[in-house]
Amino acid sequence: MLLLDRDGAATDRWTRSEGAAIDNLSRALVGFDALPDALAQITPDQQIGAVISNALAVSELEPFLPRLSLIAIGFPAFADGRGFSQAKAIRRAGFTGVLRASGPLIPDQFDYALACGFDEIELPDISAGRQTVQQWQQARGRLSQTYQRGYCSDGNILDRRRLARNPSGSAAP
Cβ(41)–Cβ(22) under 8 Å? Predict the structure, then answer.
């Protein structure tokens, strides 16, 4: 697996755990089903992360957010964008830890993933073999205009068009 962040390849300091067995792991990643048991046995020097499906309702995850340091959202395919919506909802729910997209994303999705709140992307080996770290870095920064609000500092395309039609900013007649 290749782990990428804004700066390129990154070292993964997390260990995936089978079930809730977090014993001596300083940073344990557990599946959502094992999360309550893992949190029940956490020690003060441990950090817990959750691996979740992109079909999990954020409301099911919310009670655990304050105790999690990382959430890895699974992307079964690059064309399945539910994880992007899920990331935005998790950030809106107040999660300040690390958000990881895990699955076969493509470099064209890098800017959007970052804009949705992801901090890093974990690629399966087959995907990492097709697109180099350099290709991912070159793709970063290409998203200069969006239709969605909140992703670019100078507003979205529709807001800029609206302002151009009515520079005073007042409601159009």
Answer: yes
